[in-house]
Sequence to fold (415 residues):
Amino acid sequence: MHYFEFREGELFAEDVKVRDLVKKYDTPLYIYSSKTFKRHYEAFDSAFDGIDHLTCYSVKANSNLCILKMLSEMGSGMDIVSGGELFRTLKAGVDPSKIVYSGVGKREHEIREALLSDILMFNVESKQELEKINQVAVEMEATARISLRINPDVDPQTHPYISTGLKKNKFGLDIEQAMESYKLAQKLPNIDPVGIDCHIGSQLTSIEPFIEALNRIKSFHAELMDMGIEIKYLDLGGGLGITYNEESPPHPSAFGKAVKENLQGMKLKLILEPGRVIAGNAGILITRVLYTKKSPSKNFIIVDAAMNDLVRPSLYGSFHRIDCVTQKDAPLQKADVVGPICETGDFLAQDREIREVNQDELLAVFSAGAYGFTMSSQYNSRPRGAEVLVDGSNVTLARRREVYFDLVDLEEQCF
Fold:
């Protein structure tokens, strides 16, 4: 459930009329619902009641400081993949002992920063990375807590670009490589192997791939115990999907029930890294119709939001529901909703059944709370739009709209 709804024909974000937000903050505009974020976090976290667990929100889904602070205050840990995300989480007041650091390409300074912060653990994805972390830890006279990311070769049945658990993917180590790396971790002086990590993909709409991966990890865990490696944490990653169009992903409670049943008798602390399932339907993108155009073969709705604001449709062919901010009884048409960028791939929807619209009307692009603004850019020198967080009738400007000076502030002035 989310808190974007129509009341008497007008779209509201919680108790605030979207049209009023646009009057103040212009378009394109990202609007987030505090109640939706909180509801989704509680629904996910409570699904694992009864077992020792830590829910670490995946920062890459939506890294706005207001969002991170809000979730941290609810008890959430954080899953990070860069030094910048570490900086953000610490800036938001997150307890470092609740931070796990994933990602295949950690740089030396990022490893150093994470060790200085004393994060919970690194999710290590290669033998060379393990050796690099040990080298940095030796230099710092620190101990690095690590888990190794296992690639269980499980098909998550999702888009290839967000599949991460197959042999051909760049992530993690296969079972044989992982075993050799755990043996190495035992010998390295400044490494403490405390966990096992596994993440098979994103936007999963079935529980079965999770359970298949978990069963393979359980067998692997038994081998580690026989080697005398005391594993304390099992990180199952994230990946639970949401409804964009006609998907029917399992409810977190069903996911939690299946995982808990499968983990009975195992004395491990479970770590989970949800992102999209918390943030996805907690945000919308508002855009204004600039022009409409008819060609002999197509109808076009040209809006002021573009692929630099929401790249998912261009990158993944993803579906986002699009509706008028003010409901209207207009004929349906089949049209492409496109942006101003000089790329044929700049679209928010193609061949979409949508109401006929006029210049200056507002459209809402739903399910834009995850992998929306975080994947945005300034391509075509387009300043990025604002982000606002609504809580009841209260509105917080979570990130101001960029201006032209923001486009050049970091560039050397050579004139």
User: Anything to note?
Assistant: DSSP finds twelve helices and 20 strands in the chain. Residues 208-226 form the longest helix (19 residues). Residues 4-32+280-408 form a domain with the Lyase, Ornithine Decarboxylase; Chain A, domain 1 fold (CATH 2.40.37.10). Residues 158-168 have pLDDT under 50 and may be disordered.
